[in-house]
Amino acid sequence: MAEKERVLVMGNQATVLGAIYAGMRFYAGYPITPSTEVAEGCARELPKIGGRFIQMEDEIGSIAAIIGASVSGIKSMSATSGPGYSLMVENIGYAYMTETPIVIINVQRGGPSTGLPTKVSQADTMQAQWGTHGDNTAIAVAPSTIYETFTETVRAFNLAERFRTPVTVLLDEVIGHSRQVVELPEPGELPIYDRVKPTCPPDEFEAFAMTPNLVSPMPAYGRVIAMLYRPDP
């Protein structure tokens, strides 16, 4: 068996590679230390594989953009740090309410408020669980190594798609900016979960139909509208 290629990779870069491995093809975000390398990596890599990168005006626009991309059928992600995550919280709650799968990378830093961009902290752990108003069950994963940053980002997308929910990946400044030589998984080595899509005609679709696993199929919004209202031939 051939040995895997060993690569020197930063934690934030491993997040980008893991997201692309999981099928992420749309990124919207606003630069904020110490997460900025995630945006930079997506800006470089997504155009090479037919994906899209957009820098938004702020984190509120960023989270809204990835929600819109997800409901159109595309695996989507954003990245931020503490203050930006606070701005995202209301729309994260909206994504919970509408059962929209998205992934948010939160590279935590010291706080409070604008914080200390180069100081390590896990200051947003409770916010990931309890930040939104209303009743929802949050999912968050927290890598502790560079390799886990890759695999847990893949896992985050799988959880988001499987349960139709936002998932937060909690890094911190040290994991995000550390570099390590790792053997990354080969294509097909890690399981990839894609959302379940409806199999019924559009006029029979029920948005919140009960299913055996309690997760309703999710159509791509624009395609369903086009099928329902296309003009007669």
Quick take:
The strands form two sheets. A six-stranded parallel sheet has the order 3-2-4-5-7-6, with helices on both faces. It is of the alpha/beta class and about 230 residues long. Helix content is about 40%, strand content about 15%.
Give the topology.
Blueprint: E1 6-10, H1 11-22, E2 26-29, H2 36-45, E3 52-55, H3 59-71, E4 76-80, H4 82-98, E5 102-108, H5 125-130, E6 139-141, H6 146-163, E7 166-172, H7 173-177, E8 179-183, H8 221-229
Parallel strand pairs: 2-3, 2-4, 4-5, 5-7, 6-7
Antiparallel strand pairs: 1-8
Structure description:
With 233 residues, the chain is an alpha/beta fold. The chain contains 8 helices and 8 strands. A 6-stranded parallel beta sheet has the order 3-2-4-5-7-6, with helices on both faces. Strands 1-8 form a two-stranded antiparallel sheet. Helix 6 links the parallel strand 6 and strand 7. The radius of gyration is 18 Å and the shape is globular.
